[in-house]
Amino acid sequence: MIMNPSLYLLVIIIIVSMVFGGVSLSYSSLKMKLLPTIVSGLIFVLAVVELTLELLANKRATGKNQPKTEGSSIINVNEEVGLEHVDDDVRGDMVGFAWLMGMIIATYLVGFLVSIPLFILIYLKKNGISWLKSAIMAAAADIFTFLVFVKVLQLELFPGIIVNLFT
Amino acid sequence: MIEAFVQALVNVCRPDIALGIILATTLAVIVGVIPAISGALVVILIVPFVWAFDPLLALSIMCCLIAVSCMGGSITAILIGIPGDNPNAATVLDGFPMTQKGQGGRALGLAITSNMLGGLISVFFAFIMIPVMIPIIMAFRSPELCLMIVLALMFITVLTKESRIKGLIAGLLGILLACIGFQPATGMARLNFGNLYLYSGLNAATIVLGMLAVPIMFQLNKTGTSIAPVDMKSAGKLSEIIKGGLEVIRYHKWLWLRSVLSGYIVGIMPALGATVGSWAAYGQAKQTSKHPELFGTGSPEGIVAPESASNACHAGDLLTTLAFGIPGSGIMVILLAAFVMLGIQPGPKMLVEHTALCFTMLISVAIANVIAGVICVFGSTFLIKVTRVSFAYIFAFVIPIIVLSVYVARQYMIDVYVLAVISLLGVFMDKWGYSAPALILGFVLGDQFEYYLVNSVTMYGPLFFLSPICLAIIFLVILMMGYGPVKNMIMARMKSKKGATI
Question: What's the complex ipTM?
Fold first, then answer.
């Protein structure tokens, strides 16, 4: 039997509520501390209750040696297919997150006007779209971004640290 | 009241608003056709840009996007058996069998007409209800308004799939995040841990996009769906679609009216969206039908009922959101976020102080329904081609839009880095049963909640909640929290008793 990571999130929430509650209590003004103190306290109590419930469900299921019950936070290792599904699910999310991070890092380095076409080109090519189509789409997106955000909305888009180094 | 209505009519005739309504409606119908994404996603993506628009224009556009996306969704539900939007799921049961029988055009006519007329009549109902609601709202003071926000959070936590406690934690976390930065009453920064970025608080656009839009995109990247093979001839001829539409008025008018009413009532009830409305209408249509055995095999009644109810929900949904600041469904939380970004305080005073704006939004919904109906009737054969769009294009374009949207909202690059953290949080919160809409609602209403809470405590003392209206609201809150667990307990006891008898 392995523990569901959801329990770790609850522990993090408990810690966060304690920190926020502690800091809120240190304010002298009632207006400053009233809401954050009440809210942190409530989050703390609710998170402890939820954690206790999940641990109890965990213990009960372990005692009976039965598969996962609805709403509990344990995963039976015998449920290999289920576990694989959970792994695949998380892996899929991580792949999506990697793409997002790629976009953000590229923006940090080379700015929006380069990272946007670059992201579109690479993603489309990676997903089986031809070079020509991908390049046309990337160029169109870049022109659209430039016209709408730079020309029409008069926004200064982040140029990227590499460009900043040379200017 | 009449002045506000006239003002609203003048507003929708403004060239920018009229053009905005037409474009938003067209976009909503097209997006609604694509099974993997819905109008909600477009609304989420628009939120960071609302500052660039006039409030009237921004809110009219958003209302149109919310109101008509399910009309486009009915086309795919009928022709390829895949609901374009969640509320269209019930339509698949009878719509797709009709297409298989070669009656796709007739089914489309039934769906589009029911949907369009349902949307129109529900806006009319909303207009009638506004004068009734205003005196009720005027009776609300700070304590009542404070508890109304608590009630709104409770309604949203009911939507949480797994545990209501987790939903409540999410809502409270949202309020706690809203506490970061300057406190309006004192003008001092708090909970910023000495960080300069946190002095101005977190950005609503970052929270909304990270919590809702990014997880949708990750899901799309995982499943890689949205390409659907379809026979273009299945859409039928224009004459068949028009005949199907006339059938609603000739043979199913009472069923249509019943479904609209049930959908509208479901829409008014907080936290029950169009999906619940369409299934409830489908259920009542089957129960009251002379031929219930035909449901699921291609019964026209099985299309008329859910389609008319799903669109009727939106006006009721909008009315609850405007009148009480309680979002009628998850998507209305985004609308509330847009209000905040436009500097309009959502909540009970909205209907009193911005009556013309509320009317403008409702009239926009009515106009959008007519435009969407026309687009769907004449463009169904073209619209169905949209389902062939590869998921790769959607992901490739939407991710840069999300990142750019977050940046342009405040032009802080740090907001983009925070987006990555919030996205990860959004993905795992969704996976482990915490409600993202509840967190956003808490974040959006956090400032107002604090204002009313501090006012109530300073004016009426710590026992501010003892007025009759407050006690009634508290009773509703307890009912909301207790109903599910008590029902489960009773069911479990009944089951165990039955087991013992056997």
Answer: 0.84
